[in-house]
Amino acid sequence: MSQTRRDLLKKVIIGSIGATVSLDLFRFLSPAQLQAAIGDQAVRWVFLVDTTKCVGCGLCVKACKKENEVPYDVPVTRTWVERYVVTKDGRSHIDTPNGGRDGFVDKKIQGEEIRDQDINKAFFVPKLCNQCENPACVQVCPVGATYQTKDGVTLVDRKWCIGCGYCIMACPYGVRFFHPIHKVAEKCTFCYHRISKGLKPACVQACPFGARQLGNLKNPDDPVAQIIKTQRVGVLKDEYGTKPQVFYIGLDTNVR
Amino acid sequence: MKNHVLRPLWVAIGAVALVLIVRHLMVPADFGVHGKNFTYGFHRQGSIADWQDVGVKYKGKEICKECHEDKCTDNASAKHSRLECENCHGPAMNHPEDPAKLVIDRSRDLCLRCHASLPYPNNPRGRIPGIDPVTHNPGQECSACHNPHKPNLEAM
């Protein structure tokens, strides 16, 4: 049998293509199997803050600290409330005494007396972890101790964290801190233990005015998802490209 | 081959083997890529369950009704019905077993969170009845005159 060079090359090419085709090509996946395979799922937790409803009572901060055993009298907190008072001279006066844990009872801001007639506008802005779609804090972790769950919450593995503090530096929103007892990085988890059991986060439950709400962006019938999709909402520090998932109603340019 | 070449080679191979053995023993079996990719999902899978298993402390006002129905009915028609019982009574945790009695916060500071007057324009705080804590019965507990479950200024 004679074989030309052309025949040989043909057989080699056909043979190598045949060897690379796997039987998996002919397997059909159910939609559920496909979803599981690409890590997609039916839940994406998001948060909605209505700053027009917040009165600065700070009950959210108190509830958060107690629910999550964040030391009460140490100046660290997973969530806090900021007060902005913009006066007629264009200055904005900002404070958050104890993170707003005890509410705002004094008209003075940072010791400065502000006359009522000088105020143009004043509002309160609750802050918490933005559970970013592209969390900068997770990218910088050198040991894989912080990660994003499939339902979109960024968590810290307390057993694996070495306490290097890179994530605390990386977060553009300053929501991370060093836990004084566990000696690891600490952050808001949207009360992952509560939302996994079908409960509301502690701050959402404690808020008497409905200024804080949790929702599932992937559920089209979810009231919070509806508001985010159909009404005008803003996010903090959009320019960092982290795609924050805490949305704000009534955000002002003075808010940083 | 010469001994002076082989000896460092064995040392190097031994060091690599040691690192691999230590890594095998120290890194948990469930450590790997579990999320959407390596950048965001490289972690110990068991950590998710660790977080889910944390105990719930604030139980919500629904469970209060089971025993304290009189107080809850009283509160239901009041403006303070928007408040959670636990905002003033503290987290229920496993009450009534543990703790048997909840510590009630009766301090002025608790009421002042909302009722210290801050006359801010276009802010819902300005619409809440407010007082000046310095001049309004200083040092007195609010509950001495006001009923916290069902406050009513008209009836006073």
What do you see in this structure?
The complex is a heterodimer of chains A (256) and B (156). The relative contact order of chain A is 0.20. Chain A is of the alpha+beta class and 256 residues long. The model of chain A has no long low-confidence stretch (mean pLDDT 93). Chain A has 8 helices and 10 strands. In chain A, the strands form 4 sheets. Chain A has a 3-stranded mixed β-sheet. Chain A has a 3-stranded antiparallel β-sheet with strand order 3-2-4, with no helix packed on it. In chain A, strands 5-6 form a two-stranded antiparallel sheet. Chain A folds into 2 domains: 150 residues, Alpha-Beta Plaits, CATH 3.30.70.20; 51 residues, Alpha-Beta Plaits (2-Layer Sandwich). The mean pLDDT of chain B is 92. Chain B folds into 2 domains: 50 residues; 82 residues, no CATH class. With 156 residues, chain B is mainly alpha-helical. Chain B is built from 6 helices and 2 strands. Chain B has a two-stranded antiparallel sheet. At the A-B interface, helix 3, strand 4, strand 5, helix 6 and helix 7 of A face helix 2, strand 2, helix 3 and helix 6 of B.
